[in-house]
Design a protein that fits this description.
41% of the residues lie in helices and 18% in strands. The protein has 243 residues and is α+β, with helices and mostly antiparallel strands. A hairpin with a 3-residue loop joins strand 2 and strand 3 (132-139). Helix 1 (8-16) packs across helix 2 and helix 6 (152-164) crosses helix 7 (193-208). The two termini are 37 Å apart.
């Protein structure tokens, strides 16, 4: 395994731009991001986690007053939503865990989350009973339609849960968009296990067999910190393609 340990974010970075994958995970060039979107997402995730375990929301840091106010409104609307109320109701009969580490080895045996894992990640929230599980990932930012939704992140976590808990028959995976009070969901059953294993292996094998990490040119290049800081350079013709 040349470029592991793998995670959903590591995979998605490669498939959005192989050159960004190289700069991030092979060259290990770290660029601290000061974007409001990143701060907002991080604050909302940590605050919801705190509330679910009976603590207080995280204290906002490094944001302007207007940004803090917006974040607090988003959180309040979420806490007042029917979705949050349903979580609280389910937690009375389902066991609930927040931020649980997920780990696989190369053979898809479940292992503890660690640097040595072949594949690893964190589940934002899951609720489970003897035969069913609900896995929820919090999303901030733009709402995706059901047709646009990439379910792979939670499919991976559903696979982990099914392999770890043989009595569970199905997992409902949910992406909840905090600023829109809407969600996309899908059911994963034990029939999907081999398909998901093959899907993950195929994606990782493509990365492992890559020798030249080419740039993927798109409008998103304009938001890339590696381009802004000079680690990625575009020719005149490439610039015309992304404008």
């Amino acid at each position: 395994m040349k470029y592991g340990p793998y995670s959903y974010s590591r995979q998605s970075t490669y498939y959005s731009c192989p050159n960004k994958f190289k700069l991030t995970y092979i060259d290990k060039i770290s660029i601290p991001s000061d974007s409001y979107a990143l701060k907002k997402g991080s604050w909302l995730h940590e605050s919801i986690e705190n509330i679910l375990v009976g603590s207080k929301p995280k204290q906002p840091e490094g944001m302007e007053i207007e940004e803090i106010q917006e974040c607090k409104v988003i959180l309040k609307d979420f806490l007042d939503s029917e979705f949050f109320k349903s979580i609280k109701t389910l937690s009375e009969t389902y066991e609930m865990k927040v931020e649980e580490g997920v780990g696989f080895n190369e053979h898809f045996d479940t292992v503890p989350y660690s640097e040595a894992s072949f594949f690893r990640g964190f589940i934002d929230l899951h609720l489970y009973s003897e035969e069913k599980c609900i896995i929820i990932d919090w999303k901030s930012g733009k709402l995706k339609s059901l047709e646009q939704q990439d379910f792979l992140q939670n499919e991976i976590y559903a696979l982990w849960f099914l392999l770890k808990n043989v009595e569970v028959k199905e997992v409902k995976i949910v992406f909840f968009y905090l600023e829109h009070n809407k969600y996309n969901s899908k059911i994963i059953t034990r029939k999907d296990i081999e398909t998901l294993k093959n899907k993950i292996y195929k994606k990782i094998n493509k990365i492992e067999n890559t020798h030249i990490f080419k740039k993927s040119l798109s409008k998103l290049c304009g938001y890339c910190d590696y381009l802004k800081d000079g680690y990625c350079e575009l020719s005149d013709s490439e610039l015309l393609m992304v404008l």
